Amino acid sequence: MFPTVSHFISYLFGVDIPLPFNTFGVFVALAFVAGYWAFTKELKRKEALGLIHPTKRIITVGEPASISDILLNAFFGFLIGYKVVYAIINYKLFVNDQQGVLLSAKGNIIGGIVLAIVFAYWDYSEKQKTKLPKPKKVEVTVHPHEVMSSMVVWAAVWGFLGAKIFDNLEHWDTFVKDPIGGLFSFTGLTFYGGLICGGAAVLYIARKNGIKPLHMLDVGGPGMMLAYSVGRIGCHLSGDGDWGIPNLNPKPFTWLPDWLWAYTYPNNVAREGNHIAGCIGNYCNELAQPVYPTPIYEVILAFILFIILWKIRERIKLPGMMFGIYLMLNGVERFFIELIRVNSKYTVAGIPFTQAELISSLLFIGGLLLVIYSIKNKERNANY
């Protein structure tokens, strides 16, 4: 496994380059890039079809930098300088414990002050370049795909919070023992928590920019499936604990690689299992028994489902139907993966189930109802 990018580089080229990048985090970022691409393509397509429209805004140009803008930029500059300079000076510590460095109160005061001055001056000088003797108001046109940057930021922040909240609810016993660590650690993320909270944030931004909810949901279906597939690559390569139950069954086909059938996830970032003899470092554990590599199964399945959604998207004319199909496919895929995946179980009325099984079932039902709604309201939705 490759808990960090350095491990991956060492595996490929045999060179040890200490870098402060976790493999999982890199693929989360790539998942956002993939989603951004798919969302943007769909927003442009729907605008070209006249289903969504650009909005008009009145902005003021030629204003000098305000005191509040300068102070805000100085504040962000201080935070960045405070942490970045400290991380550079203590690079070895940062490589070994990025979370500890970033979330601690430790930093470099001089670095913070220098970056605060730089950021404040940068804001001031940029505004001076466009300053007019008399500021004026102008009308600008904002196309739907141009708000994607705001959507990504909101989706990232609220998606992370949602993923952490749902994960801590799923592992409540561990959370109550260390609530601060549970909330602020960079590990332990639940996809559905991120989907629900991040999706709600995107809908909020879309609504503010004149994009109706059903059209925005349809835009998101293929992109979210693609992002999920890319993100799961990070789960598998880093060994973040999203693996399956023990699998001691013989391979059904001799040509099938061991890592695709039953895998022990050596050097996993979750640090679970037995210590690997002779291994030195933070990631020296390997599972005692091989397990189903469920993340790689989801990479494959989610990408296939993305291709299906991408192929049929131009044929679907009813608002809401694309997202309904996405919910159904997503729910079915995750429900059946849960049958061989390690997860905390709840028991209600004698029926055991996991959080993901419950949510995936609800998503499938919700998707089915949305498809039925789209069909029954065909005439009304034709002009939606």
Sequence-ordered SSE layout with sheet pairings:
Elements: H1 5-13, H2 23-48, E1 55-61, H3 67-89, H4 91-96, H5 98-103, H6 109-129, E2 136-142, H7 148-170, H8 172-177, H9 179-184, H10 191-208, H11 213-238, H12 258-261, E3 274-275, E4 285-286, H13 294-312, H14 321-338, E5 345-348, E6 351-354, H15 355-376, H16 378-381
Antiparallel strand pairs: 1-2, 3-4, 5-6
Radius of gyration: 24 Å
Outline the biggest β-sheet. Answer: 2 strands, antiparallel
Number of domains: 2
First and last CA, distance:
49 Å
Number of helices, counting only DSSP H or I runs of 4 residues or more? 16
Unreliably modeled segments: none
Strand proportion: 5-15%
Order of SSEs: HHEHHHHEHHHHHHEEHHEEHH
Mean pLDDT: 89
- Which structural class do the helices and strands define? mainly alpha
**How many beta-strand elements?**
6
Query: Helical percent range?
Result: 55-70%
* Order of strands in the sheet with most strands: 1-2
Shape: flat
